[in-house]
Amino acid sequence: MGKVVMYSSVSVDGFIADDDDRPGPLFDWLSGGDVALDDSGALRVSQASYDYVRPYWDGIGVTIVGRHVFDLTDGWDGKPPSGVGHVVVVTHRPAPDGWDPAAPFHFAGGVEAAVAAAQELAGDRIVEVAAGDVGGQVLAAGLIDEVRMDVVPVVLGSGKRYFGAVNAQHLLEDPDVVLRGRRVLHLRYPVRR
């Protein structure tokens, strides 16, 4: 099975969005470079960021998100973001009325069920878990193998925390990647078992 990776861009004070769910400048690094990160050409990063992020994105088989993110994005209109094959949504509610059952979205009642479903769908590819409340719950359940952060030089002051409402200590190993891009610091930490 592939790794289970918690991932997001994050402010230096630990937030993935402001109090109104807006990322603000957290994604500016995705448009400030010279190298196209995707086929659309809309995302442009430094060469260092491209060399680090593109192989990771290419390895993702499934993304796990919470219902809040699903609702904020209107379920990406039934098309998983960034070419990901499937999305697993952690929720206690059914799919929205009129939702296309053929869309590659799967609904799970808890984080353990979501990770199990995602691993089945992903095979040996990466299971990406969106940071925030769901990511923190997956970490607390001991199901995260690696934490990836794209740390952006901004202080938001308050907002949605990278690790959600986690209120217990979790040890990570020393970072095995510390890479400077333009307006971003890429960090990767294996989770201590």
TrEMBL record:
Domain of life according to the entry: Bacteria
GO molecular function: 5-amino-6-(5-phosphoribosylamino)uracil reductase activity
Ranges where the Bacterial bifunctional deaminase-reductase C-terminal domain occurs: 4-172
SUPFAM superfamilies per the UniProt record, alphabetical: Dihydrofolate reductase-like
InterPro entries attached to this UniProt entry: DHFR-like_dom_sf, RibDG_C
Stretches of the chain forming a coiled coil according to its record: none
A GO biological process held by the record: riboflavin biosynthetic process
UniProt protein name: Bacterial bifunctional deaminase-reductase C-terminal domain-containing protein
Organism: Dactylosporangium matsuzakiense
